[in-house]
């Protein structure tokens, strides 16, 4: 895709997500795809908000455990609270590198993703499917101390990598250079709790946005070679639930999440 080409006539996952969360950084094609998905799964915004809370809970736990370097791959459009805001409130000196490959995300990230602490926040224009470019970037090689643990976060992005072997390969390559004690946090789409959700998956695919829904066992397999922290792979609102998670209907949440250590 040429630099700066927003491809506004084609739906984009980050902009669909933005629309479903009530944002304004989306176009007619994104809104049309989102409304089609809502016809099948009207609780999608509930699920997406639960997923944002999972991100915040996961990175808070890791920051409290002493992790000070975060590589967030597949960032999407800035949506408060952003990962660095959560992390730097716990650890002001933490370093965060955001990664995405959408020009609209790039524009907004550069404008909005400013530190709330003393640590650095940077944005890398790169593709999840090209870990080599991510890992050899100045943001990683110069921004991180590779002798210290790094948390790699893949929040609501791996559903767009529809082949399990490719997804595991991406995870393995992203984690390879980081030392023991590094962490992997991810959340992935499921329809285990509601087969009607397959209509939403089909809507994404029919609009040119590849999506696959995985079972719990399928998500657990993405953590192969890593040590899962309690409570393992669970619906995101059941992962260290907060007051906001209490009372959320299980049938309204279509994401599994988990955090593991290397």
TrEMBL record:
GO terms for molecular function: methyltransferase activity. GO terms for biological process: methylation. Transmembrane segments: none annotated. Signal peptide: none annotated. Keywords: Methyltransferase, Transferase. InterPro entries: SAM-dependent_MTases_sf, SAM_dep_MeTrfase_SAV2177_type. It comes from the Bacteria. This is Methyltransferase. It comes from Actinoplanes utahensis.
């Amino acid at each position: 895709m040429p630099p700066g080409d927003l491809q506004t006539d084609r739906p984009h996952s980050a902009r669909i997500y933005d629309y479903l969360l009530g944002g304004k950084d989306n176009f007619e094609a994104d809104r049309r795809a989102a409304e089609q998905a809502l016809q099948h799964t009207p609780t999608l915004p509930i699920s997406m908000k639960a997923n944002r809370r999972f991100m915040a809970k996961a990175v808070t736990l890791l920051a409290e455990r002493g992790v000070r370097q975060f590589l967030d791959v597949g960032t999407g459009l800035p949506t408060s609270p952003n990962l660095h805001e959560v992390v730097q409130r716990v650890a002001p000196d933490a370093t965060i590198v955001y990664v995405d490959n959408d020009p609209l995300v790039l524009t907004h990230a550069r404008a909005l993703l400013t530190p709330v602490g003393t640590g650095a926040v940077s944005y890398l224009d790169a593709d999840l499917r090209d870990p080599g470019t991510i890992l050899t970037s100045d943001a990683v090689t110069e921004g991180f101390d590779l002798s210290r643990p790094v948390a790699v976060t893949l929040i609501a992005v791996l559903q767009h990598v529809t082949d399990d072997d490719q997804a595991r390969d991406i995870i393995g390559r992203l984690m390879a250079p980081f030392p023991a004690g590094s962490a992997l946090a991810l959340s992935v789409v499921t329809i285990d709790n509601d087969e009607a959700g397959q209509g939403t998956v089909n809507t994404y695919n029919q609009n040119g946005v590849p999506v696959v829904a995985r079972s719990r066992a399928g998500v657990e397999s993405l953590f192969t070679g890593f040590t899962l922290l309690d409570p393992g792979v669970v619906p995101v609102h059941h992962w260290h639930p907060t007051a906001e998670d209490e009372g959320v209907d299980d049938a309204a949440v279509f994401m599994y999440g988990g955090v593991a250590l290397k």
